[in-house]
Sequence to fold (412 residues):
Amino acid sequence: MRSTTAALTGLTDRRQARLTAGLVATVVFLTAIAPLATDMYVPAFPQVAGDLSSTATQVQLTLTTFFVGMALGQLVGGPVSDQRGRRTPLILALAVMAAASIACALTPTIAVMTAARFVQGFAGGWAMVIGRAVIVDLATGAQLVRVLNIIAGVGGLAPIVGPLVGAAILQLSDWRVSFWVVAALGLAMIVAVLIAVPESLPRERRHAGGLRTFLTAGRIVLGNREYVGYLIVAGAAMGALFAYVATSAFVLQAMNGLSPIAYSIDFAANAAGMTVAALIAARLAGRVSTRKIILTGQIAALAAGIAMLAGAMWFGTPLILTMACFFVLMTAQGLMIPNGGALASAAVPEHPGTGSAVQGFVQWVAAGTIAPIAGLGGSTTAVPMALLITAGAAVSMAGLLIARSNLCSIKT
Fold:
């Protein structure tokens, strides 16, 4: 009788949990938290340092701790959601994120800010990984690739909007308001989840909890050669992306004399290129080989990296070449990261939460590691950044080769 009841409950859950426009919009909302919480805040670094009597390095550390929190939050949140279901842990994570944002807004010292930023990142990463897992629960094949590309494409608007909102806040008020805005968005996300996101993981599909189960699931997903290959594809591309993010201001402004306004316009144009590429890839899903789309992006990124390296080493990093290379690189990311992530998720459908967690962890560790290394050139040379972009594209290509020997059922 109990098994019959469980089966009927699972059937009801599956009927209720459908991939709707509202659900997809909510997941887009969730994925926007990282760029919004970062890009709205970065323009205020000098003000934060002055108000909290801290150094520029200490303020930069609040960004690093946020990225570390994002990575760990995704690593933990995915397996927990595989055990407990998606909806309740997601709501809890959003509540914690909102509370941490309020702590940032009220912080009296840089030490409190640093700790609160870690918690904010941890909860935000937890929410992001569960959002991706919900999509993997409900979509398969070309539909999964299409939806994840749409999420990446629309979510790509956040890096465009974030700096503009942050700049507007600084014009009208002070940096603390940006954290009140993030807290309000967290509460809005909770409402959106309550309205649009049903439980997508029935009880009979959940895994038992505990560290041993997590390690077992981790070994399973990392033992899947196809998954590892696509994990490398997306992770290496993410590293190249953040090499650009960390150094583009120095390269374009300090080395080439671009004004802050002109730089912001160029940054927005590059982010728009990435968004358009992801949306085009979404329309091509199921009609064009996803692996071919990824390879196209990898070739473009590699060419941009090589051209940037040549320009930095022999031609003084000319402005036109640099801007063109940045645009090509960012557009290529729209073909590589969401498609690589989609095929990685599709390779481990039995462990969607753990697969998404490992994927998110690797990507954000890559972001947090590459960014400071890329900045070693300071405002005098772009060679370290160009080397990392080139290496990222090459390693991403290697990941595609690793995955090739064990293709999944998606049309690749």
Notes: The chain has two domains: 18-199, 217-405. DSSP finds 17 helices and no strands in the chain. Residues 225-254 form the longest helix (30 residues). Residues 18-199 form a domain with the Growth Hormone; Chain: A; fold (CATH 1.20.1250.20).
